[in-house]
What we know:
Blueprint: E1 21-25, H1 30-41, E2 45-50, H2 53-67, E3 71-75, H3 81-95, E4 100-103, H4 119-144, E5 151-154
Helix pairs in contact: 1-2, 3-4
Amino acid sequence: MRLESPIAYDAFAAFRMTGHCVIITGGAQNIGAGIARTLSGAGARVMIADLDGDRARETAQAIAAETGCDCRGRACDVTKLSDIHAVAEETVRAFGSISTLANNVGWGGRHDRPEAISEEDFITSYKLNRISAYRMSMACLPHLLKSENATITNSGSMSSAAPAYDILAYA
């Protein structure tokens, strides 16, 4: 028996983030911008932290215009502790708290052969893809612990489940 409904199912209809204050790393474009748009559209105040500060601000302005929620962008090199702490502090100054952290930064150079990956490239990729998430989480943790329903989400890559030799350092 097939059910007929005049209303299409909207999985996000009841999804609300009103009152939440979110930091999204790597949020100026692609998946990060989609996360920012979705959470802002659900009512969250969003801080986009991205290596490209100009693009982070542009993306934030566009999202704020679209959703009507407070969305801001700023430069942040997540491999630098000073930038990480600055983002957390600015978010608390702007929004009063941090309730959600989305560690979305990820990058890895492509190589023709696994042996072409230098130790320096591997370490750089590891710092960006793994250590930055830990550091950002630790910088935000004191604020997250004060928030009801606090969350940390760490984005990953399918490359970690099915590694590809050309982006081995990324996975």
